[in-house]
Amino acid sequence: MSKQYDVVVIGAGPAGYVAAIRAAQHGLKTACIDEWKNKDGKNAFGGTCLNAGCIPSKALLESSELYHRAHHEFAKHGIKAGNIELDLGALQKRRAGIVRQLTNGIAGLFKANKVDGLVGHGKLLADRKVEFTPVDGKAEVIEAENVIVATGSTPIELPFAKFDHEKIVDSWDALEFDEVPKRLGIIGAGVIGLELGSVWRRLGAEVTIIEAMHDFLFMADREIASVAGKDFKKQGLDIRLGAKLTKATAGKNGVKVEYEDKGIPESLEVDKLVVAVGRRPFTDGLFAEDSGIQLDERGFIVVDDECRTRVKNVFAIGDCVRGPMLAHKGSEEGVMAADLIAGEIAEMNYDVIPSVIYTAPEIAWVGKTEAEVKESGREYKTGSFPFAASGRAKAMEQTTGLVKVVAAVDDDEILGVHIVGPMAGELIGEAVLAMEFSASTEDIQRTIHAHPSLSEAVHEAALAADKKALNYPNK
Ligand code: FAD
Ligand code: NAI
Prior knowledge:
- By secondary structure, the chain is an alpha/beta fold.
- It is built from 13 helices and 21 strands.
- Helix 1 (about 15-25) packs parallel to helix 4 (about 90-115) and helix 3 packs antiparallel against helix 4.
């Protein structure tokens, strides 16, 4: 007889593994299938996020930022550090160690929660049957009351700049370079381009980023993007906007990059080229022809607001469905799907999902940009506070940036919060919570913030929305 489960999850990235744990916490018999294999040939749970995304990139961002600060900032603090040298081998070993600890941690969490972690390929058949092919094993069919598909995404490959994974590389390859490239080209000034560009720039590479859009960070608030763009330029990131890649050719000495800059053909020679032009949903080899699952024109699995596919009791969550490709968005969808399966009421608030770009300065936002609010026609007010006026930011020697609050005039509700500056990714948490509770600027104004802290900048920006800022002149 085939194995039977209440819930089978396909994919153990942040969407799938969280869904599996929550389902098991509900007392449901749960299995989670994953086929991820790392570059050392070993399988690991955690998906893109833990193995080749969020976690390794943040490890490198932290190390490279410390290296940069040791070079450029220590002297200001009166610290003579002598001869600072980079040991890239040790830096990369630390990155790999963090990844290993966290991915092993998921295996431990599966055990503790009684989730069967199955290593191999999953394929959805008709009638909620799942074909599971273990690594080096024979396929078997598992029966499930409910299936959650969480197969994630993969980098988009451009036909005229195909990955050879040596010189023309994807973001995963670029996290594992064993040498600092002298000249690094990046296609796409999106989140990956900026984070990885920052890492390798700080470690010594000359970095040129080719970006098709004319507006820098088009999805961010204009004021925030402008401050960030100027600072990245000062750091030596050469970001060419309105420039579209037309061809990349790998040769003996590097990569010839051909692009059109505002319609004029240009070219560039680099040692390595990272292509980071977005990701596509990954559903290769996932569905039997009669599975009944529908994909949209871009390959995303079609789901409703509750992440239900059109097949009864089959859910899909995370990067393989519509919405931002963010780990925390996938995890929360996983919790929702598992709770719904357990018969609970659950929903996602898609309007309040924070975005963070872990550059220095960091960039973070939640809700609508000022332009979006303006476009909606609702009367609004804004309040800003610069980190240059924050005692804590001065002590940290990190005074670039600001907090900006956008709120409604009629009922004072906070509609968006935008931050560029130190620890923006942590500060945004307060704004997310406020917006989740439909808070007003007055709610933040009346909340006591510790002194001296960066969070005072959020407080002051909320005060400034009503021209009540205390530590900066009101406009
Ligand atoms: P994934 O993490 O992609 O996991 C899917 C899993 O399913 C994989 O393990 C895959 O092997 C497995 N799988 C697929 N098909 C099958 C099958 N048929 N059978 C068995 N297993 C299968 N997001 C953030 O929120 N913050 C960040 O800081 C951040 N940094 C990033 C940095 C980089 C360089 C990259 C590339 C991405 C980053 N992201 C970040 C995005 C984040 O990694 C994704 O949004 C997140 O991993 C999506 O989770 P997921 O579970 O949907 O899919
Ligand atoms: P992205 O969508 O953020 O950026 C891709 C950029 O490439 C865009 O600005 C686009 O205009 C540009 N582009 C596309 N085609 C081009 C061409 N031919 N020539 C020049 N430029 C071109 O995608 P990215 O950076 O690849 O990241 C993928 C996803 O991973 C993101 O959507 C993000 O959600 C997630 N991610 C999240 C992180 C975080 O939360 N901190 C960090 C890294 C990735």
